[in-house]
């Protein structure tokens, strides 16, 4: 990740970085796939959108912050405490950026969820729309 949140919590930073990157990469993929004239880089077979999307713009971190707040409201607990519950359910330590990325994917309604590869621990996740129009078009241009 190219940006650093630099909060007082490494877990919060990792969660927000994972979530912000997931949200931006989904929007970038939507932009490239829906713009027939786009010459922006895109993956081919077996490659990953994460390797082709430009650096995550700062406003993606604001969206990740909205996800953090959504989780706090719906679960009456912050994501750090939720990760502790997830760790207990899985029997292994939760990695912050993976937790943020997978929860963001679920939040965006992609069909990917934390419980695809991890134990269900009763997490409640809201929903938001992320599309090619979520970010300024300049964010998609190569730097």
Q: Tell me, briefly, the overall form.
A: globular
Give the domain tally. 1
Percent of sequence in beta strands: under 5%
Largest sheet, if any? none
Give me the strand/helix succession.
HHHH
Give the integer mean of the pLDDT values.
92
What is the structural class? Answer: mainly alpha
Instruction: Give helix % range.
Output: 40-55%
The end-to-end distance, rounded to whole angstroms, is: 15 Å
How many separate helices? 4
Rg of Cα set:
15 Å
Strand segment count: 0
Stretches where pLDDT falls below 50 for ≥5 residues? none
Keyphrases for this structure?
47% helix
Q: Mind sketching the topology for me?
A:
Elements: H1 10-34, H2 58-75, H3 79-90, H4 96-107
Helix pairs in contact: 1-2, 1-4
Please, could you describe this protein's structure?
By secondary structure, the chain is mainly alpha-helical. The chain has one domain (10-37, 49-140). It has helices at 10-34, 58-75, 79-90, 96-107. The chain is globular and about 50 Å long. The mean pLDDT is 92.
């Amino acid at each position: 990740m190219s940006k650093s949140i630099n909060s007082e919590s490494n877990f919060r930073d990792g969660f927000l970085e994972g979530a912000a990157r997931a949200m931006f990469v989904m929007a970038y993929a939507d932009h490239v796939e829906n713009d027939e004239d786009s010459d922006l880089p895109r993956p081919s077979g077996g490659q990953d959108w994460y390797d082709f999307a430009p650096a995550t713009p700062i406003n993606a971190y604001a969206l990740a912050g909205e996800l953090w707040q959504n989780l706090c409201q719906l679960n009456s607990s912050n994501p750090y405490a939720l990760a502790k519950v997830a760790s207990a359910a899985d029997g292994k330590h939760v990695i912050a950026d993976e937790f943020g990325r997978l929860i963001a994917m679920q939040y965006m309604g992609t069909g990917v969820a934390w419980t695809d590869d991890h134990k269900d621990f009763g997490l409640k996740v809201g929903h938001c729309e992320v599309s090619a129009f979520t970010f300024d078009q300049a964010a998609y241009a190569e730097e």
